[in-house]
């Protein structure tokens, strides 16, 4: 009896194994990424010396897919022209490949250089053993926070002016834990993971950020009325941390209400503290308010590394190569990069040139209601830059 | 004159951008504002001052907007010497410096000026690019490798004492932090220049702890650079290999004393101290200096020393401060003048006879090639710039030497 049942069980398992591809990929996939994470876990804490020699910093450049290569190309050109003391180490990632080798090269390169600038990276492969590259990059480098500055441009017509919000988003856990499985056929479970440790680290980052940048208020965005434990913990931790920063006002808002408030009265927000999924929703809503995806940039920070990218993570494959993509978001990413490298002079002149182009000259690409091409915009930025470029290395 | 060069540099900048592939700039004609680069100069001892003079004249001939701040720093003529702190402040301000060789007296105690200069600026990495220059006769042809030397610790710690009479101890210090830093520098340098292999040179079989630590740090860093091959070699074998089969080397990384020896052995391979240029890097500054540390004081005033190393240093400096147009012009001149200087002079002489070049440059027009090296090389440079200075900024592609030395 026992023997029969063991055989039956074995058969049954084999059946499940061969037919249920999701289980297979769950087990294989998790073991691949588990091994991967173990391998890097020990290294994530080591801080290597910065790749800055003779005043020149090396920065990893990941052009990514879609419009990424065009936009990073403009950045390279502008840096060359303005004499920015940055050397790019370019790492290309083949989007259709199933192997993670390119991605590993990219991650190692950022580990070496400490800083990266990236376009959005496509993950075309549907195999679950291939991680989403954007998510993998953030997890492997422990880039636990995404800081996204949303502000309105006077030169761009939009429903709301005077928007100036920082969205501080949890970047490495929450809904994007990449732990999904089909427990029985037709039932899929996706784990949303909130840990006290990471929530605390993020909340401290947000309040510190507010303090350093002279901000007055932090709003925690959550759905703790439904997800009482997970979002409950996130909210509880942010309330606890808020007590350490008495000069900064703290309130909280439920995500659905938050989206409505953003659309109707965005000026009530200052710094927003969100989990992973809510962060992406909130930042996209604000982007919509002030004129679209092509303007703003975001920075991903960890303890040792920083990666900058256009704010909303769209690949823009449809408009690639047509010379209509808005280069402003990537250029703003470059400004963030320069600020991070403490190249204040270059950051300032590039920021000025961008603002003049968008607000005064109103050279706009079609996505923000203009008719200029990408190169028109870049040329105009260069024209303004030219008046401030000094020869040689300026620190 | 300077306006002319600024104008040229604008056009060439656009040319430069077109070379990079994205030629979006047809309509824009941006103007680069007037302004000059500051560069600290430390002439050094021996033939240093003469060589610096040569170098400055050549840099001026390229039209590069550079202001030189000269500081005479010397251990042997210490009463004439500038204060080390002033020099360091100037280098920090300018971020670039061209330095001759300082002689360090054998007697006396404490750190030499060289030592203090490196420590105060934290010039941890010395890079010497050993490259054969066509036209210089040598035993091995077409050498091209890079020696990277840690120069803030190791044997040159300046910590020596006599414990009991007749017994002297000298500390060799190796720290994990600095070993990691130099190893990472070597791998970063190799990555940035598309090199394939890094060789760590050590004596870890004897100094198991000191050199062992250095070697382990190199191994650890190598794991971050999967595309670069990593090897190690014991210093004594390394010097033999350098003399017999130097082509096997690509990038070499080593401690302080080994670096000093290997630099000089390798410089000898390609034509000596007058040919080889080097540079010392800290995080924020670069000091360009000849690769082999030799003051050549017996040649002072005889105009027989070779200024090529100093001129290559200047070209590298121009490249580093983004005056790439002028740097490439100078590299092209070096290619031509050192490689085929006689032709340059004979062309110039023909132009002179036809009334195209000034009498000032040419004097009586005779005996230019046969003179002592310094003078004749300088005159050849002047001839080259007189012929090509204004027009031939960008014929096609990079100058050969430039593509090897400064590939970016």
UniProtKB/TrEMBL annotation, chain A:
What InterPro entries does the record tag this protein with?
Isocitrate_DH_NAD, IsoPropMal-DH-like_dom
Tell me the keywords, alphabetical order: Mitochondrion, Transit peptide, Tricarboxylic acid cycle
Q: Which GO biological process entries does UniProt record here?
A: isocitrate metabolic process; tricarboxylic acid cycle
Q: List, for all copies, the residue spans of the domain called Isopropylmalate dehydrogenase-like.
A: 58-381
- Localization, UniProt: Mitochondrion
- What are the record's GO terms for cellular component? mitochondrion
Q: Which family does it belong to?
A: Belongs to the isocitrate and isopropylmalate dehydrogenases family.
This one is known as Isopropylmalate dehydrogenase-like domain-containing protein
Q: What is the lineage of its organism?
A: Eukaryota, Metazoa, Ecdysozoa, Arthropoda, Hexapoda
UniProtKB/TrEMBL annotation, chain B:
Q: By what name is this protein known?
A: Isocitrate dehydrogenase [NAD] subunit, mitochondrial
Gene Ontology CC: mitochondrion
**GO BP term, pick one:** tricarboxylic acid cycle
Q: Which UniProt keywords apply?
A: Mitochondrion, Transit peptide, Tricarboxylic acid cycle
Q: Which InterPro entries match?
A: IsoCit/isopropylmalate_DH_CS, Isocitrate_DH_NAD, IsoPropMal-DH-like_dom
**Organism, as annotated:** Allacma fusca
SMART domains, sorted: Iso_dh (SM01329)
PANTHER family (UniProt xref): DECARBOXYLATING DEHYDROGENASES-ISOCITRATE, ISOPROPYLMALATE, TARTRATE, ISOCITRATE DEHYDROGENASE [NAD] SUBUNIT BETA, MITOCHONDRIAL
Main location, first listed in the record: mitochondrion
């Amino acid at each position: 009896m026992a023997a029969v049942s063991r055989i039956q069980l074995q058969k049954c398992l084999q059946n499940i194994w061969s037919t249920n591809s999701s289980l297979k990929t769950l087990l294989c996939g998790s073991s691949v990424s588990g091994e991967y994470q173990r391998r890097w876990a020990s290294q994530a804490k080591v801080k290597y010396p910065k790749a800055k020699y003779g005043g020149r910093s090396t920065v990893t450049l990941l052009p990514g897919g879609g419009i990424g290569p065009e936009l990073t190309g403009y950045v390279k050109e502008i840096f060359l022209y303005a004499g920015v003391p940055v050397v790019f180490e370019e790492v290309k990632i083949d989007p259709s490949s199933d192997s993670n080798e390119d991605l590993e090269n990219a991650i190692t390169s950022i580990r070496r250089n400490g800083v990266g600038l990236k376009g959005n990276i496509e993950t075309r492969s549907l195999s679950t053993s291939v991680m989403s590259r954007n998510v993998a990059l953030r997890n492997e480098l422990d880039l636990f926070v995404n800081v996204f500055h949303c502000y309105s441009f006077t030169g761009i017509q939009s429903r709301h002016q005077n928007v100036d919000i920082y969205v501080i988003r949890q970047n490495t856990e929450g809904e994007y834990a990449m732990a999904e499985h089909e427990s029985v056929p037709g039932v899929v479970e996706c784990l949303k993971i909130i840990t006290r440790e990471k929530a605390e680290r993020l909340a401290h980052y947000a309040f510190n950020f507010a303090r350093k940048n002279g901000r007055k208020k932090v709003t925690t965005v959550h759905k703790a009325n439904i997800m009482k434990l997970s979002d409950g913990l996130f909210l509880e931790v942010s309330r606890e941390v808020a007590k350490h920063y008495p000069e900064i006002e703290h309130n909280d808002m439920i995500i659905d209400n938050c989206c409505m408030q953003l659309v109707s009265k965005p000026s009530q927000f200052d710094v927003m503290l969100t989990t992973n999924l809510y962060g992406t929703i909130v930042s996209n809503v604000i982007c919509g308010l002030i004129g679209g995806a092509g303007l703003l940039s975001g920075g991903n920070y960890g303890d040792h590394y920083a990666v900058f990218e256009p704010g909303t993570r769209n690949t823009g494959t449809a408009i690639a190569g047509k010379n209509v993509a808005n280069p402003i978001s990537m250029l703003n990413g470059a400004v963030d990069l320069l600020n991070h490298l403490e190249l204040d002079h270059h950051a300032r002149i590039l920021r000025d040139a961008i603002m003049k182009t968008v607000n005064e000259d109103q050279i706009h690409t079609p996505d923000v209601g203009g008719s200029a091409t990408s190169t028109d915009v870049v040329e105009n930025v260069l024209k303004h830059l030219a008046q401030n470029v000094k020869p040689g290395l300026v620190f | 004159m300077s306006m002319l060069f600024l104008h040229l540099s604008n056009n060439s900048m656009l040319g430069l951008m077109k070379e990079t592939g994205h030629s979006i700039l047809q309509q824009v004609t941006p103007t680069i504002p007037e302004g000059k680069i500051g560069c600290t100069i430390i002439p050094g001892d021996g033939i240093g001052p003469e060589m610096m003079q040569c170098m400055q004249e050549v840099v001026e001939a390229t039209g590069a907007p550079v202001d030189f701040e000269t500081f005479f720093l010397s251990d042997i003529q210490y009463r004439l010497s500038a204060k080390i702190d002033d020099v360091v402040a100037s280098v920090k301000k300018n971020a670039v410096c061209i330095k001759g060789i300082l002689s360090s007296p054998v007697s006396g105690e404490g750190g030499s000026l060289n030592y203090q200069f490196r420590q105060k600026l934290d010039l941890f990495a010395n890079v010497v690019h050993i490259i054969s220059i066509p036209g210089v006769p040598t035993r091995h042809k077409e050498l091209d490798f890079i020696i990277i030397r840690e120069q803030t610790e190791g044997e040159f710690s300046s910590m020596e004492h006599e414990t009991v009479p007749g017994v002297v101890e000298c500390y060799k210090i190796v720290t994990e932090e600095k070993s990691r830093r130099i190893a990472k520098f070597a791998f970063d340098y190799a990555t940035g220049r598309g090199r394939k292999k890094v060789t760590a040179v050590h004596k870890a079989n004897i100094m198991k702890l000191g050199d062992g630590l250095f070697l382990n740090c190199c191994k650890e860093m190598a794991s971050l650079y999967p595309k670069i091959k990593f090897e190690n070699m014991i210093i004594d074998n390394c010097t033999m290999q350098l003399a017999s089969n130097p082509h096997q080397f690509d990038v070499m990384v080593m401690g302080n004393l080994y670096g000093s020896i290997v630099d000089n052995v390798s410089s000898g391979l390609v034509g000596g101290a007058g040919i080889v240029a080097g540079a010392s890097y800290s995080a924020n500054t670069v000091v360009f200096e000849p690769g082999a540390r030799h003051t050549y004081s017996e040649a002072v005033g005889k105009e027989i020393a070779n200024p090529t190393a100093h001129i290559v240093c200047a070209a590298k400096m121009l490249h580093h401060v983004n005056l790439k147009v002028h740097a490439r012009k100078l590299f092209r001149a070096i290619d031509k003048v050192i490689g085929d200087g006689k032709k340059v002079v004979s062309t110039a002489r023909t132009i002179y006879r036809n009334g195209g070049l000034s009498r000032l440059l040419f004097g009586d027009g005779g005996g230019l090639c046969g003179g002592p090296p310094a003078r004749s090389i300088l005159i050849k440079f002047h001839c080259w710039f007189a012929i090509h200075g204004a027009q031939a900024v960008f014929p096609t592609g990079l100058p050969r030497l430039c593509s090897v030395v400064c590939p970016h």
